[in-house]
Structures are given as structure tokens and as C-alpha cells.
């Protein structure tokens, strides 16, 4: 350790203790370099000490001085005393004789606490739970995200996801979106190490895909189409990457956890494609939206074959895909109607360009209604992925992460935006869609400019005049002199 006066880094494990001035957080511990292990002093931040003026003193001279001086440092106490730990409560992070963990329950009748150890674990997802006397545990500050290990970040994301599901069920879509986004950000840049197990990698994939899909659905509720497309594409990329490793260890673990191929590569990918198609349609990218719907339909055809239909254990997924297929059909029909209107407007503009005796484009827009402002009504999406709200781990996700109560305080309680009345309440998709027949019907109703007889006659006259002029010039310029 450095001598007194030099910079001393903050303690990695910061204890919460009782002081004569209220609760204190041990920020730094200085060791005497001349005496091995002897604590020279501790620097404590007094959490309950108020050095700001009260509301009644805002006009006082001291209040004015504090405002002019800028941000006020928290009250600090320097002492070499060994203060006792504060009393543990549920969800507190604690240090025990067996490692670091989190309090999951209190036993006041026996003066004991139940602690789930997080600093080490058994094989797979097995964890260790200890019943300890309250006097042998010391409360510490919860870890920040950058301080967490891989498994702690995954469990923290699972905890945020559960809270987001609750908010979504209560139609608080903006708040739910914030929690889903926080869950995705918590594990977005996870760097696996040598001690990262395949179970961790599988859990990471599940929480990333489900939270991305759920965040995309929340965005559709709020009409945030760009964000919805980004979240859905993120989930689709992850599932495509998993399919490339089909049959390997992580895929095998997911199968054991109850995630068959029909759910991984069927339900989840179809939901992503539908959200992408909906977002593209709302942004008037009709052709791309239709392509995304066809891609979703190909996944349904692949995983609703006769073999899967006969499998009784897959019936819930089969029904879900059939429901999603009906929704695809509705959205596909709306996109075809939109494309039909777009082509009609193109034909009208072409006719006006060549002087056809028809209405001008502006008159057509007034007659048909401005399409860009009044698009074809698109069916409303439900909440893809929310049925996967339960964590994959065998235990609850209340571990090794900042208390969810502190996270809730970051989210405002404001009401979310009201949804448009032209959208339905649930998603569903169909048994079969004949895309080719729909395309033919749509194309047959639209007459392109080059198929219009008046336009072709005008072009023929123009071409004849041009040819006559060319022949005449050629005769006078290149005929032999007499």
C-alpha cells in the first residue's frame, strides 16, 4: 500500500456500517506501510448526513453560498474504528464466511438469514444456499454492471426482464421498453472467459433474443418503428447464428431446457420477421415488408410439417405458429392493398406526363385520399416473446445484481401513449397463404403506363415523326449530286 498522502484506490468491496452519524459506506481503507496489516484509517461516506440546506432555508445566506460553490461533496468521516455492519435485509448483497451472496429471505424467529452464494457455484446452474446467523454476515454495496461477472450480468438481465414483463402486462409500454432495453444493454458486450460454461452461453442467448423481441413489440405499441425494426433484426441475427451451430453443445443445452427447434427457429424467428414487416410497412417500404412476411411464412412451413403435428409435446408451438400465420395473412393482404394503391398512383402520374386525358395526380390524390397520410390499416401486433418470461435457470433470478427496487426508481411513472384505434389487440398467423395468387390478383387490377392504348398511340406517332425526319435529313445530306 502507498504511504499516507499518496492516492489510495477505492476498496473493491465496500461495506455498509453503523456510525454515530448514521449509515456509512467504507470507501477507502488505508494500511500503515510500517506495520503489516494494521489499518491506519478508514474513509467513510456518511449516507444519512445532510449537509444541504432544507427547503425552509433556501433564502438563507448559507444556502446562497452552497448554490454558488457548485456541487457539494458528500459528508466524509475519517476514522480508524471498526464499525459494525448494518442489519441485513432481503435483496442486500452480503459477505459471508463462505463467500459473497445475496439475502433471499429473513428468519427473525431464529435470528437467521438465507443467503444464496454468488461468488462460486456447483456444476451447471446449481447454486449454494446457506442459513446463517445474522451476526456473521456483513452488508456490502451492490455491484455496478461493469463490476459484475458474466453470470451476474445474465441474472441481472433476467431480473430486469421479469419486471419488464409485469409492466407490459399492465400496458405501461414505455416503462417496459426501458427495462427491456436495460436488460439487453446489460449483456450486450459480455466477454466470455475460460470459466464461462455452456449453460451461461445458452442463458445469455435466451435472454438476449426474448428481450430484443419484447422490446421490439413494445416499440410497436409506441409506434417507434425504427427502434422496433432494430430490436427485431438483432433477435433474428442471434437465431440465425444459433442455427449455424445446430446440433452443437449450446443447441443441445437449449433442447434439454425445453426449447425445441420449433420454438427457437420457428416461433422466435417468425415473431421477429413479423415485427420487421410491420415496421417496414409503416415506413412505406411495402416490397421489403412483403419479402419479410414471405420469409416468416417459409419458417412456418418448415416447422409445421406432418412430423411435428403428430408430436404431442409440440402442440402448443404448433398452435402458436398457426395463430401467427393468420396474422401474416392479414398483414400480407394489407401490404398488397397498399402496393395496389402505389401502382395506381404511378400509372396516373405517367399518364399525366404524356398528356393523357385523365385526372392529374393531385386530383387523383384528392379523389382516392392521400395515401401517404392515410395508409391501409395494418393489423396490430401482440407481444411476441412474452410467453418466455420465465428464466431458464432453475432458481429465481434474484441474485448478484442491484436491487430491482433501485432500478424501478429510475423509471418514471408517467402513463404511456394511447394506441391507435385502427389496430387489433392480438397477433395471429395462418395455415396456408397463396402468395402467388394474391400477387397475380393485385397485378391484374393495375394497368401499367406501357399497357395503356392512348399512351402507346402517342408514342407511335412520336416515333413515326422522328423516323420521317431522320430519313428526310439522310436523303438531303447523303444523296449523290446530279
TrEMBL record:
Q: What are the TM regions of this chain, as residue ranges?
A: 455-478
Q: Which residues form a coiled coil?
A: 276-351
InterPro entries attached here? FKBP4/5/8-like, TPR-like_helical_dom_sf
Where is the sequence biased in composition, kind Basic and acidic residues?
360-369
Which residues lie within the region annotated Disordered? 351-416
What are the entry keywords?
A: Coiled coil, Membrane, Transmembrane, Transmembrane helix
The name under which this protein is listed is Uncharacterized protein
Q: What is the lineage of its organism?
A: Eukaryota, Sar, Stramenopiles, Ochrophyta, Bacillariophyta
